[in-house]
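The records we work with from here on pair a chain with its fold. These numbers are not coordinates but entries in a learned vocabulary of local backbone shapes. To see the layout at work, look at the sequence and tokens printed below:
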Amino acid sequence: MPAPPWRGVGIGAGLVASVALGFATCLAAAVVHREAFFAGGIAVFPYGLLLALATTWSVGKAMRDVFGAAGGICVVVGWLTTLSWLLLGRPEGDFVVANDSLGWGLLAGGVIVLGWLVASSVARTGDRD
């Protein structure tokens, strides 16, 4: 069996990297979640939102698989910390996440994906004991 890719780096550095990946994933999600095909001013296919949520799920699952439950939880911490910072708004009154269906889709979808990640990480930890 080959050695894990993080063996020489240390688990602490891997967990810091997981938080950084959660941060980067949330920033990318905030940028692309507004992309959609529109018809009559209504988003009929929100491909940016789907891409944002799929990427969040993929990064979280990958970090959970590589670093265990702590890796998945660290991605959640990085993602939620970044999102709360983005939701504060900008000094000129602009917001990164709008109060519309795409903005609420990012918030609700993100909570669902991150909730799944936390639940599966905890369940996975319970299987090992």
Q: What stands out?
A: The CA atoms of residues 2 and 8 lie 13 Å apart. The chain has one domain: 11-128. The chain has a mean pLDDT of 84.
